[in-house]
Amino acid sequence: MQKNAAAVAMGLFDGVHLGHRKVLETAYQQKKNGLIPSAFTFHAKMAEQKQSKWIYPTNTKLWMLENDCGMEQILAVPFEEVCGMSGEEFVRQILCEQLHASYLCCGNDFRFGKNAGWNVHDLQKFGKIYGFSVEIVDDVQIDGITVSSTEIRKLLKEGNLEKANILLGEPYLILQEVTHGAQLGRTIGFPTVNQLFEGGQLIPAYGVYASFTSTPEGWFPSITNIGRKPTVHYMGMPLAETYIDGFSGDLYGEKLQVILLHFIRPEQKFSSVNELTAQMQKDLKACRQISKSFHYSDT
């Protein structure tokens, strides 16, 4: 075995959900055999080739592959860089020459090469030629539902966060830099940190969520509103506005983790600032009650 031989999990992994994690864990288990746990994936925009919006942007996905799933080597490529390769060119140039694959694992629907013309059985045949083994990982079923990015997108759009989180295997994560806003929340006693979603990303149902937020001082319960603000600051892009309960400090420019725990209510319009403030107090009370069931700490 070559010194830098790798066990490579392959897939789009746009949701890093339980099905993806099963594939990634299969690769990680090969570490005990001296292989480097590795992942081959595409940039998130690959989902657009399937006429889908991606669950997580590329930077979030890569962070999760490394920090949650233990991948020590990750190759993420733009789809256009490999879409013209034949199946054998992909295997030789990407899997063998770049990743030094000794062991590969993927779901049974993984396809590769120009026009997705090669499947897992072709991959096994190439393995006999190029000297790597291939393990096909079965789908994950939860309550009779096959865990898939398609199902999770549907649940997130419907506001069924609890079911989406079960299929994801972890609470839905927002991992973006804090940007400057209009600072209107400060005027009513609810200063927020604002994080923009990326163009092409699937946005969870607009509304208010109970959440937890990681700060330099640790995890705090929080309230997150997801929606659009037609202001010059955001150009109408969807964003998450989070009030961090019990935290006071400057977080501009920080890349924060905000995890969504429970969908409290959909967006609504208020006739006055007093009405808005009263509702925010109700949301905060609900959030504090929900947060008692959760405990998060930095690891």
Give the key terms.
about 300 residues; alpha/beta; Rossmann fold; Elongation Factor Tu (Ef-tu), domain 3; 2 domains; six-stranded antiparallel beta sheet
Q: How does this model look, in words?
A:
The chain has nine helices and 13 strands. With 299 residues, it is α/β, with parallel strands linked by helices. It has two domains: 6-142, Rossmann fold (3-Layer(aba) Sandwich), CATH 3.40.50; 171-291, Beta Barrel (Elongation Factor Tu (Ef-tu), domain 3). The strands form three sheets. The chain has a six-stranded antiparallel beta sheet. Strands 3-2-1-4-5 form a five-stranded parallel beta sheet, sandwiched between helices. Strand 1, helix 1 and strand 2 form a beta-alpha-beta unit. Helix 5 crosses helix 6 (120-130) and helix 7 (149-158) packs antiparallel against helix 8 (161-168). It starts with 5 loop residues before the first strand and ends in an 8-residue tail after the last helix. The model has no long low-confidence stretch (mean pLDDT 90).
- What is the total number of structural domains? 2
On the 0-100 scale, what is the average pLDDT?
A: 90
The level 1 CATH classification of the largest domain is: Alpha Beta
Write down how many β-strands occur, each being a DSSP E stretch of 2 or more residues.
13
Radius of gyration: 21 Å
Please trace the helix and strand order, writing H or E for each element.
Answer: EHEHHEHHEHEEEHHEEEEEEH
Q: End-to-end distance, in Å? A: 34 Å
Assess the beta-strand content as a share of residues: 25-35%
Strand arrangement in the largest pleated sheet: 8-13-10-11-12-9
What CATH architecture label of the largest domain applies? 3-Layer(aba) Sandwich
Q: Classify the fold: give the CATH topology of the largest domain.
A: Rossmann fold
Residue runs with pLDDT of under 50 for 5 or more positions: none
CATH superfamily of the largest domain: HUPs
The DSSP helix count reads 9
Global structural class: alpha/beta
The helical percent reads: 25-40%
What is the overall shape? elongated
**Sheet with the most strands, sense and barrel status:** 6 strands, antiparallel
